[in-house]
Specification:
This protein is of the alpha/beta class and 303 residues long. It folds into 2 domains: 27-135 and 241-299, 3-Layer(aba) Sandwich (D-Maltodextrin-Binding Protein, domain 2); 138-232, D-Maltodextrin-Binding Protein, domain 2 (3-Layer(aba) Sandwich). The chain contains 15 helices and 10 strands. The protein has helices at residues 2-25, 45-61, 74-82, 93-100, 109-124, 144-149, 155-158, 171-175, 180-187, 203-208, 223-226, 250-255, 258-264, 272-283, 289-299, and strands spanning 37-41, 66-70, 88-92, 126-128, 138-143, 167-170, 196-198, 214-218, 229-232, 244-249. Strands 2-1-3-10-4 form a 5-stranded mixed β-sheet, with helices on both faces. The protein has a 5-stranded mixed β-sheet with strand order 7-6-8-5-9. Strand 1, helix 2 (45-61) and strand 2 (66-70) form a beta-alpha-beta unit. The radius of gyration is 20 Å and the shape is globular. The termini are far apart.
């Protein structure tokens, strides 16, 4: 009887996973129902903002109609890109270099960019455009009260406390070449138990509620300052540069020459503080993404 129930459960679980997979690749999922250009988000707040920025910029400066799509990770989005299902999205250079190209992390931003640009053109026929102007690096975060109690500011200082702490990580951070395994080895981070794997949308809540004591996040997360959290300095410079950079299919640029000029107008327009503020407006004040992006474009003289 137990074996039969297990088989039934396994069948329904597999069916559920397949349905989710199909839904995530559905052209109309979170999209506008068709368009000349498809712009994607990797599935978290900052990415939703950046994809909407690309979409609004293209629609405002060209005669092209843009469809929005939302995926779940760098890997899924990249596969959709190389399969021709999307035309553009914003990636982070360190993510592409270590996660997609499987290269060992290097700290020189210019070298990362040049090697990435060349490899993406040769291997995937994709163009890596210039940075939007800010970097969003991985960070390890703790509660402000703990930082003050232990007078702690760096990851090296935190290493002595992790045997008594509980860690929390996103699935992607646990799996990535530039993620938790290498970080733990570099700093000697040894938690009492294996880090809990959590959705990025829940990870700060778990930290504040003391379900975990250290979590990974992103340097431009709006919730860090709002929740009184402290980012520990990467004093051994483990993480590579993560400059926010539009990736576009070369075939799309050839088909629609006006696309290049539209996206190029966004180069250098962002600072990390501005990105953090936009994230806060959406996550902290629950503002609509389209409205926040529209206001930002007006403030930057892009509208």
């Amino acid at each position: 009887m137990k074996k039969k129930l297990k088989k039934i459960f396994a069948f329904f679980l597999l069916t559920f996973v397949l349905v989710l997979g199909i839904a995530s690749c559905n052209p109309n999922t979170n999209g506008s129902g068709g368009g000349d250009i498809v712009v994607a988000s990797k599935g978290f707040t900052e990415q939703d903002i950046l994809s909407e920025l690309l979409a609004q910029q293209i629609e405002a400066t060209t005669n092209l109609k843009v469809e929005r799509r939302r995926f779940t990770s760098s890997f899924v989005t990249h596969k959709a890109m190389t399969a021709g299902k999307i035309d553009a999205y914003v990636e982070y250079t360190g993510t592409a270099f270590t996660g997609i190209l499987k290269q060992k992390a290097i700290s020189d931003p210019k070298e990362v960019y040049q090697r990435l640009k060349q490899a993406y053109a040769q291997q995937f026929n994709l163009e890596v455009m210039e940075s939007l102007g800010f970097e969003n690096t991985f960070v390890m975060t703790i509660r402000g009260e703990d930082a003050r109690r232990y007078n702690m500011t760096t990851l090296s200082e935190a290493a002595q406390y992790t045997p008594q702490w509980r860690g929390g990580c996103s699935y992607e951070f646990i799996e990535r070449e530039d993620g938790f395994p290498g970080l733990a080895k570099t700093y000697g981070l040894r938690f009492a138990h294996s880090p809990r794997i959590m959705d990025l949308g829940l990870i700060y809540r778990a930290l504040v509620q003391k379900q975990v004591d250290m979590v990974n996040g992103n340097s431009t997360d709006g919730q860090i300052s709002r929740l009184g959290l402290v980012v520990l300095k990467d004093d051994k410079q483990y993480f590579p540069p993560y400059e926010a950079t539009p990736i576009v299919r070369k075939a799309s640029l050839q088909k629609y020459p006006q696309l290049r000029k539209a996206i190029a107008q966004l180069v250098g327009k962002f600072s990390a503080d501005e990105m953090r503020q936009l994230n806060y407006l959406v996550e902290g004040e629950l503002r609509d993404v389209k409205e926040v992006v529209s206001e930002f474009r007006k403030a930057k003289g892009l509208a």
